Amino acid sequence: MQKTDITKLVRKNILSLKPYSSARDEFSGSDGVFLDANENPFGELNRYPDPHQKELKTKLSEIKSVPVSTIFVGNGSDEVIDLTFRIFCNPGKDKALTFTPTYGMYEVSAEINDVELIKVPLTAEFQIDFDALENYLSDENLKLIFICSPNNPTANSLDNIEKVLQKFNGIVIVDEAYIDFSKASSFLTKIEQYPNLIVMQTFSKAWGLAAARVGMAYSNDLIISFYNKVKPPYNVSGPNQKAALKALEDKTGFKNRKSIILEQRTWLHNQLSGLAVVIKIYPSDANFLLVEMTDANRIYNELVNQKVITRNRHSVVENCIRITVGSPEENKILVNALKKIK
Ligand SMILES: *Cc1c(COP(=O)(O)O)cnc(C)c1O
Fold first, then answer.
1. Which residues contact 293 (CB under 8 A, 6 or more apart)?
2. Ligand 1, residues 75, 103, 146, 154: which to mutate, most atoms within 8 A of Cβ?
3. One fold for both 6-249 and 252-339?
4. What is the pTM (predicted TM-score) of this model?
């Protein structure tokens, strides 16, 4: 691979940006009388949080075996996605690409940033269509390729992601929101090898902290330095940093809950495969199943009438419903509700 010059991919205004320097940047000690940030001296949440989330990053760095300088923590992956557009894509000029059907935020974020998103359909097996991709790789304005693996909503892991990293000289973002439920290995180990790789992970799924809004980007020091430049100074709240740190400290709880979800995924798959309304269940590497129904719109509505809410994906994969693997009780309720539908 031609060595990618990352700085050439970054927008000029971002390269020359002088980032905001907060009170906590200018004095980072923890001991003293703090009269520097116009905080209120009274209360429990009265102080600004650590803008660099040092404690959280240190713990993540231990668990993931990567240096602290290669970690960015965002207000959910959604902030990471938005900042990625803002760092690399000139509005109205640059482009991004993804493989569809996939996570809807890449498109929304592209539109907000006035960036054209090229959608290359996945093959019938929900894998990357390299022949179709080839047509776009030499486009000078193509800056980003988003790869979601395991992919939402198709539930499978994508093969040959590394081939994209080798063929494309722009930035490749691998969204690993569901990696903890997958047999496939994480691309975190490839960060040193590919200077154009960004791996996204999140606390929202396997870690059970969707409410806390904590998502990560892992990459080389240089790329991470641009995220730190453009992020809002206090982008992850104090309580949310604490919640994430607490989750990381409970390794046993994490493992136990994950194994229940994986067992339930198999149980649900078995139960659903016997039902008259179910045509096909796609293999899942995630905490949800993509299920082809006899009539997704009708079945979705009949489930809603029974107060069971699933995600109707008929508009993106014909007659498919996406079902999150819930608790054993929730899954039983779903199966019983489906049994009542003819
Ligand atoms: C759920 C999900 C996320 C998580 O987003 P957060 O903003 O971190 O909650 C990221 N990517 C994909 C593909 C998802 O399905």
1. 277, 278, 279, 299, 319, 320, 321
2. 103
3. no
4. 0.96
